[in-house]
Amino acid sequence: MTSTNRFANRLLIVVVGIVLLCAGLAAAAVVLNPTATTIWNQNAPRIRAAAESLLLTPAVPGTRTGWVLLGALAALVILIALLVAFIWRQGGGRTGRLLVRQTGETGTTIIESDVATGLLQDALTDDPEILAAHVTAYAIKGTTALKIAVTCRRGASPQRIGRTIDRLLTALDDVLGVDIPAYVQISGGFRARMTARTRLDRRTSPTNVIAPANP
Amino acid sequence: MSAVHSPSARMKRRETHSPRSLVAIVVAIALILVFAWLATEIVLELIGRPPLLGSPAEMLHGTAALTSAPISWVVTGGAVLAAIGIVLVVLGLTPGRRSRHVLASARSVIVVDDEVIASGLARRAASAARISPDNVRVTLARRTVDVRLTPTSGVLVDRSAVLDAVAGELDSYDLEPALRPPRLQVESRGQVGA
Question: Between vectors from CA B59 to CA B55 and to CA B62, what angle results, nearest 5°?
């Protein structure tokens, strides 16, 4: 649902991984393989001297400033900025606008996400097998979609809960006049929670025990 | 209705696989630290101050002197780098499938955690075997369902009834990727009075 660029994540991971792998293997190979060691010993001093003169030759005689070093510094700063932006962009995409529609020439209709969020959350928490419901709107690929995260009771049939949610969504479609793409996530968190399969309904008599119906 | 379906395949794929956000963030932070240190060394060199760990000239010297360093250090260091590299490549290339399945729906994309599916099947198995749901353990993998139950001592379990009940429940869910028919294992030791 989020705007996380998964491809970029994996690309970064794989590229850095390959660089580390090659650097590590190369370093070990140079020291362990006699031929490689000889080649290294012959060429390294020359390359080092060339690199040193390239980096440290001052642009203006008398100062310490070298153009290449400054360029390297600028590149590093840009890379750091890009990486920070990369981290920042993980997991965003929420929106407060559900629907924007041009209604003829008279004006625009804007429906806030809170409309759908409120309607759905209220209706869902009424269901005895749904312990918690969290509805948010995300902007994806030019349209807005609803994410409905539901935590259900242990032993509940996910199919029944799915049907219930679909019915509510269809009713919402009728209210809004348009179909909103929806993503439903049904989770349980059973290992963490200690809630019983049956519950006491405090709205009626304290001794009234409501158990999920046996299918 | 078609507007609901076009983003749905993408949604299904995204929500059933890991985004690798955590790994990517850790890698990005590590890179930021390394780049920030390099930038600091360059700045210190430019303003003529002593370096933190090594000035650019010293770093070049150190790299060129790779063959003069103790071999065990270089090999260990290289092996560690290579190992981290392999782990990263594997993490980046493997799909990272989450333990979830997609429930068939015409209206929306429904993704269910495997433990919810398992507990729904367990309740069904328990009622078919006439035992407490606490004595049923259902394990779900990508394509397989394993049901293990501990019967009440002295009460026979109707294996085919249990399998039919669980298979029927599973079919009604209509999951993707499709699961093979469930396998049942009844413990040889019963639970007294459950």
Answer: 135
